[in-house]
Design brief:
- The chain is built from 20 helices and 8 strands.
- Strands 1-2-3-4-5-6-7-8 form an 8-stranded mixed beta barrel, surrounded by 5 helices.
- α3 links the parallel β3 and β4.
């Protein structure tokens, strides 16, 4: 059975990630998560998707929100998931009859939290509100004045409220002022337009570094000077070059020696990773996390598609959110780092039809959105083994988690 799982971040008011909703496809012929497809099939989805990838990898140390329908709830499949880090998200199709209410009370006593997905209050749903911990509301489903009243009413019940499908920075700002506690959607990846503002000096230096490592031949003297201007960056470089990844004799005694020890390919990748994190220091951490997952996923899938695609695919994914990091249109942001023309064309949608890099970029975007029908189509066009996409995504998430930990130290 082909199984897929993706994740979508849930943020707090400071745009810090508090959890991830896990998005599944249940069977090869259905493109949404649907437990009605059968007990055995759905059980395999949970076990194969969550445990094959690794739940800890998927949630990245945060809370996992997992969709449950009536059958899954009554058959207690939540017991496959750890209570302290799992929120059981009840689908809007669930009717709160006596069996459902009893099951909710039972899982609540066992330490699980309950979220009501796409919730709109109706007669008979009062018992669910008494048990639930979180209510999720689509911000486009109600007029804004009515939403403000709704949020206040839920807060009076001691419920946390999630604004779903927040797509723009303006929507996020309004929802935050309206009192929503958490936010879900792609607003964090949409730049707040700040026309006419200068890039801070520190960011400008990092962008110079990014430009330098994109050159066909590296200038070690120039790189050394740029890196030496940042003490923390220099420390990270020497520590990385001194690691067991590189065979050497004696200790690293200079920036140039560290660069020589690493070699050009490792320098390009390491500098790109660290400078991207530095550029994003005043941005939501999920921007970098998502960029890293995209980079590794594109690289791994590129390796399956054709020789020579891995490195450009990695850089393409890594810089795919540069517009949000620099608060400027993507074409202007990409001009700052001067990527290879093929990478830039793929990111801007200017590549010729059938371009493999464009296909990989679209695949990563559609996978994140859990658009499984489009994922199937793109995997077919790329002639990649469909059953390896899940493994590639899981490996990418794990690698990104590890990279973030390393860059933070």
């Amino acid at each position: 059975m082909e199984v897929f799982v993706a994740r979508q971040a849930i943020f707090d008011q400071n745009r810090r990630v508090q959890g991830y909703e896990l998005l599944f496809r249940a069977t090869a012929d259905r493109n949404e998560f649907d437990a009605v497809a059968g007990t055995q099939a759905t059980a395999e989805v949970i076990s194969n998707c969550v445990f094959a990838v690794g739940l800890d990898n998927l949630r990245g140390g945060k809370t996992a929100f997992v969709n449950f329908d009536r059958r899954m709830l009554l058959q207690e499949w939540y017991k496959m998931l750890p209570p302290k880090t799992t929120v059981i998200e009840l689908l809007e199709t669930i009717t709160p009859d006596a069996e459902v209410i009893a099951a909710c009370r039972s899982l609540s006593k066992q330490g699980y939290r309950i979220a009501l997905d796409d919730f709109v209050f109706r007669a008979g749903y009062e018992p669910l509100l008494e048990i639930a911990n979180v209510v999720k509301v689509e911000i486009g489903s109600l007029p804004r004045t009515e939403q403000e009243n709704t949020v206040r009413a839920y807060h009076a019940r001691k419920l946390k409220v999630v604004a779903e499908k927040v797509e723009t920075y303006e929507e996020f700002e309004w929802a935050r002022k309206a009192g929503y506690d958490f936010f879900q959607g792609y607003f964090f990846a949409r730049p707040k337009v700040m026309r006419g503002e200068q890039i801070l000096a520190a960011k400008a230096n990092y962008l110079r570094l990014l430009r330098e490592v994109q050159q066909p031949e590296l200038d070690f003297n120039c790189l050394g000077e740029l890196i030496s201007e940042d003490v923390a960056f220099s420390y990270k470089l020497i520590r990385y070059a001194s690691s067991t990844l590189f065979a050497r004799r004696g200790r690293i005694q200079s920036i140039r020696q560290a660069l020589t020890t690493m070699g050009e390919d490792n320098i390009r990748r390491w500098v790109s990773l660290v400078t991207l994190s530095k550029v994003a220091e005043d941005k939501p951490g999920e921007l970098v996390a998502c960029s890293l997952v995209r980079a590794k996923f594109c690289e791994l899938m590129g390796n399956l598609v054709g020789a020579g695609l891995q490195e450009p695919a990695f850089l393409m994914g890594l810089f795919s959110m540069l517009d949000a990091l620099l608060d400027r249109p993507l074409d202007e942001a990409l001009a700052e780092v001067r990527l290879a023309p093929g990478i830039t064309a793929a990111l801007l949608g200017l590549a010729p039809e059938g371009d493999a890099l464009t296909g990989l970029y679209k695949l990563a975007r559609r996978y994140e959105a859990a658009d499984w029908e489009e994922v199937d189509r793109l995997v077919g066009e790329l002639k990649a083994p469909a059953n390896l996409a899940l493994q590639a995504y899981g490996d990418a998430v794990q690698w990104a988690n590890e990279a973030l930990i390393l860059n933070a130290t």
